[in-house]
C-alpha cells in the first residue's frame, strides 16, 4: 500500500516540477508567452553567449524574434498542413510514451530486472498451447488439472511427455535448461522467479498458451566470458587425449595459445581466429562440462587443463571476464533491454492502473455493463444502428465526455486486435483498451497543463517546426528562386566578393640559418620541392596565401623568385614564389551560394521588421529583471 501511495504522490507532484505558470514575460497581441518557457529555452542555448553580464537580455532579443515568427506561422495556418500535423503528432506520441515510462514504475521494473539478472534458474515446463486463442478457457482448465495432479505427486517428466504441446517435450521432457532475465517472455519469467526451487507454479498465461513451470535449481549469474578454444577430435580418443596434453605442456612452456589453436584445433571456424570463440553466458555454452570449465576461469589470460566432453578434448583460455556490475552501472543497459523487450508496455499498463486510483474522483464509468456485452458483436457485424443510443454517456474523465458512439467508433477501428480472443473476452478487452486510451489522453492533457518540462519540450519542438516552415516559405525558398534579387544584391555589394592580393608559393622552414642557406641555394639552382624535402631537414608548406596571411613571414617581398631568409618565430624560412595574384572581383557564378546565403539573412530581417510593425508586443520588464537575477 505504501508503494502505491508513494507512486501517487510522485504522480501528483511530478517530482516537484508541476507548479503554477510564472507571470507572463512576452505578450503578442493577446497571447502570453511565459517565463518558464524562456527559462527552458535559455538553458538549452547557453553556449550561444560569451557575455556573462548580459546573456539574459541578449538571448531575450533572439527569443522575442523567435516567438514572433512562430506566432506569424500559426496565424498563417502552417500548423494545419497535413505534413506538419503528421510530423508533430508522431513526435508528440513518441515523446509522451517515453515520458510516462520514466519515474518510479520504470525504476521499479529496472530494479526487478537487476535482481533477476543476479540469478540464473534451471527449469522445465509443460505447455498447453492456444495457437488461435479460440478456446483459452478449455486450455486453462486442462492446465489447471495437470497442475493439480503434479501437486499430488505425479511425475513432471512423464506428464510433460504426455501432455505438453511444446515441440521439444517428447525429447526433453519439458526441460528448458538455464535462463535469466530477458531470456523468456515477461509473464513466464515472473512466474519462474516467484516459484521456489523444487516447487511447481500455478498455470501462467503467455502469448503461447498456459505454462506450468517447475524450478529445479538456481545459481549465481557470473555474467559473460570471452573465450578462446582448442578442440581435438580424432578417431581414437586416446590419441586426442595425448595431443591435448601435449598442447597443454607447450602452453606451460610459454607457447602462444592462438598460434597453437591455428595449427592444431579441429574447430576450423575458431581456429582461423586463433581459437577465439566469442562472448558467452554460462547458460549459452554446451555441453555442460564445457560451460563449467569456462566459468571456473576467473583471471584473464589463464587457461584450463585438457578436459573431455562427448565430442572430444578441449582447452579453453579466458580472454575477457565480464561479471555483473553494480545496479548503477547496469541501469542504463537494463533500461534499453527493457524497452527492446516490449516491457515498456508493462510500465504503461501499471501507470494506467495507478492513474485509475489517483484520478478515481475524476473518472465516471457511466456505461451499462450488460448492454455492450450483449450487443457489441451484433452491432459491429450487422452495422444496424437504428435503435443505438449514440449520445448516451459512456465515460467521463474530468471535463471530457465520451458517448456510446465514441466507444462504438473505437471498437470498429480496433476490433481486429481482439478478434483472436475467445468471444467472452473480446468485449471486456476492447472496453478496457478504450478506457486506458482515454485515461492516458487525459493524463497527456494534465501533463501539458501542469508539468513545465513536458509542456516546454513540446512547445519548443512545435514552435521550432513552425519557424522552420515560415522561413522555408518566406525566406529560404524566396532567396533560392529570386535570381533577379540575387544578381542585384551581387551588383550592389560586388566589392565584398573579391579574391584578395595573394601569393602562390612554396615555403621551407628549417631550424638553423645554415640549413636555410643550403635550401636557398638549392632553389636558386632549380631543385624542385621533392628533391629539397628528401635532402634537407625542412618543414614544407605550399599553397595560395593572402599577402596578410600570418603564415607568411613579416617583411616578405616578392621581388625575387627565391626569397631572402626570414626569421619566423623559432624557424628560418625561405620562400619560392610561383605566382603573384592581384586583387580581382569574383564572378557571380563563383559566389552564388554565398550571395543566396546573405540574401536569406536580408529577407529574414525584412520579415522581422514587417512583423514588428504588424503586431502589438509587450514585454513584462519586472519579469525580465527577475530572470536576469535568477539566470545570470
Describe the structure.
The chain has 632 residues and is α+β, with helices and mostly antiparallel strands. The strands form 6 sheets. Strands 4-3-6-5 form a 4-stranded antiparallel sheet, sandwiched between helices. A 4-stranded antiparallel sheet has the order 8-7-10-9, with helices on both faces. A hairpin with a 2-residue loop joins strand 5 (204-206) and strand 6 (209-220). Helix 15 crosses helix 18 (423-450), helix 19 (452-481) packs across helix 23 (588-614) and helix 20 (483-492) packs across helix 23. The two termini are 45 Å apart. Residues 1-20 have low confidence and may be disordered.
What is the strand and helix layout of this fold?
Elements: H1 2-13, E1 24-28, E2 31-34, H2 35-44, H3 55-75, H4 82-100, H5 104-117, E3 119-129, H6 136-151, H7 156-163, H8 169-172, E4 175-179, H9 186-193, E5 204-206, E6 209-220, E7 224-232, H10 237-252, H11 257-264, H12 268-271, E8 276-281, H13 288-296, E9 307-308, E10 313-322, H14 327-340, H15 344-358, E11 363-365, H16 369-382, E12 393-397, E13 400-403, H17 404-414, H18 423-450, H19 452-481, H20 483-492, E14 498-499, E15 502-510, H21 513-524, H22 529-535, E16 539-546, E17 566-568, E18 571-581, E19 584-585, H23 588-614, E20 617-619, H24 621-631
Antiparallel strand pairs: 1-2, 1-20, 3-4, 3-6, 5-6, 7-8, 7-10, 9-10, 11-12, 12-13, 14-19, 15-16, 15-18, 17-18
Amino acid at each position: 500500500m505504501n508503494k502505491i501511495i508513494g507512486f501517487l504522490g510522485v504522480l501528483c507532484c511530478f517530482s516537484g516540477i508541476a507548479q503554477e505558470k510564472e507571470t507572463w514575460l512576452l505578450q503578442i497581441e493577446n497571447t502570453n508567452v511565459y517565463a518558464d518557457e524562456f527559462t527552458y529555452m535559455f538553458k538549452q542555448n547557453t553556449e550561444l553567449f560569451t557575455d556573462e553580464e548580459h546573456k539574459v537580455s541578449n538571448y531575450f532579443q533572439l527569443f522575442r524574434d523567435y516567438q514572433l515568427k512562430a506566432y506569424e506561422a500559426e496565424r498563417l495556418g502552417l500548423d494545419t498542413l497535413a505534413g506538419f500535423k503528421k510530423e508533430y503528432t508522431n513526435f508528440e506520441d513518441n515523446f509522451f510514451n517515453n515520458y510516462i515510462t520514466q519515474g518510479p514504475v520504470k525504476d521499479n521494473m529496472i530494479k526487478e530486472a537487476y535482481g533477476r539478472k543476479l540469478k540464473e534458474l534451471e527449469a522445465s515446463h509443460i505447455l498447453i498451447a492456444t495457437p488461435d486463442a479460440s478456446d483459452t478457457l478449455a486450455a486453462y482448465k486442462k492446465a489447471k488439472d495437470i497442475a493439480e495432479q503434479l501437486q499430488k505427486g505425479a511425475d513432471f517428466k512423464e506428464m510433460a511427455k504426455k501432455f505438453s504441446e511444446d515441440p521439444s517435450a517428447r525429447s526433453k521432457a519439458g526441460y528448458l535448461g538455464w535462463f535469466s532475465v530477458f531470456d523468456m517472455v515477461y509473464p513466464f519469467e515472473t512466474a519462474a522467479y516467484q516459484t521456489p526451487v523444487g516447487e511447481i507454479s500455478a498455470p501462467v498465461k503467455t502469448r503461447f498458451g498456459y505454462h506450468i513451470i517447475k524450478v529445479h535449481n538456481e545459481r549465481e549469474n557470473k555474467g559473460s566470458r570471452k573465450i578462446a578454444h582448442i578442440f581435438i577430435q580424432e578417431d581414437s580418443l586416446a590419441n586426442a587425449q595425448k595431443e591435448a596434453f601435449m598442447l597443454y605442456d607447450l602452453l606451460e612452456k610459454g607457447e602462444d595459445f592462438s598460434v597453437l589453436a591455428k595449427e592444431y584445433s579441429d574447430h576450423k571456424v575458431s581456429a582461423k581466429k586463433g581459437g577465439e570463440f566469442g562472448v558467452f553466458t554460462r547458460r549459452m555454452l554446451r555441453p555442460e562440462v564445457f560451460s563449467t570449465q569456462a566459468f571456473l576461469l576467473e583471471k584473464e589470460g589463464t587457461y584450463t587443463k585438457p578436459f573431455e566432453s562427448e565430442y572430444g578434448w578441449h582447452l579453453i583460455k579466458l580472454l575477457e571476464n565480464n561479471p555483473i556490475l553494480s545496479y548503477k552501472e547496469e541501469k542504463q543497459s537494463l533500461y534499453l533491454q527493457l524497452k527492446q523487450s516490449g516491457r515498456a508496455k508493462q510500465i504503461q499498463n501499471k501507470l494506467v492502473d495507478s492513474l485509475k486510483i489517483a484520478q478515481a474522483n475524476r473518472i465516471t464509468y457511466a456505461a451499462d455493463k450488460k448492454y455492450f456485452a450483449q450487443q457489441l458483436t451484433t452491432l459491429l457485424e450487422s452495422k444496424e444502428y437504428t435503435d443505438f443510443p449514440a449520445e448516451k454517456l459512456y465515460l467521463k474523465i474530468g471535463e471530457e465526455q465520451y458517448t456510446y458512439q465514441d466507444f462504438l467508433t473505437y471498437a470498429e477501428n480496433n476490433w481486429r486486435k481482439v478478434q483472436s480472443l475467445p468471444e467472452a473476452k473480446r468485449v471486456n478487452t476492447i472496453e478496457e483498451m478504450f478506457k486506458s486510451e482515454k485515461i492516458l489522453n487525459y493524463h497527456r492533457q494534465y501533463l501539458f497543463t501542469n508539468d513545465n518540462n513536458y509542456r516546454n519540450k513540446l512547445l519548443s519542438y512545435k514552435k521550432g517546426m513552425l519557424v522552420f516552415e515560415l522561413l522555408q516559405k518566406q525566406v529560404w525558398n524566396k532567396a533560392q528562386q529570386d535570381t533577379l534579387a540575387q544578381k542585384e544584391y551581387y551588383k550592389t555589394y560586388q566589392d565584398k566578393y573579391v579574391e584578395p592580393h595573394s601569393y602562390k608559393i612554396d615555403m621551407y622552414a628549417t631550424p638553423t640559418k645554415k640549413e636555410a642557406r643550403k635550401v636557398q641555394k638549392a632553389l636558386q639552382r632549380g631543385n624542385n620541392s621533392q628533391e629539397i624535402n628528401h635532402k634537407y631537414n625542412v618543414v614544407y608548406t605550399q599553397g595560395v596565401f593572402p599577402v596578410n596571411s600570418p603564415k607568411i613571414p613579416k617583411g616578405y617581398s616578392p621581388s625575387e623568385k627565391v626569397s631572402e631568409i626570414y626569421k619566423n618565430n623559432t624557424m628560418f624560412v625561405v620562400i619560392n614564389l610561383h605566382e603573384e595574384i592581384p586583387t580581382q572581383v569574383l564572378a557571380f557564378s563563383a559566389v552564388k551560394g554565398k550571395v543566396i546565403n546573405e540574401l536569406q539573412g536580408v529577407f529574414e530581417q525584412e520579415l522581422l521588421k514587417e512583423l514588428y510593425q504588424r503586431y502589438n508586443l509587450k514585454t513584462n520588464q519586472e519579469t525580465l529583471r527577475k530572470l536576469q537575477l535568477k539566470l545570470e
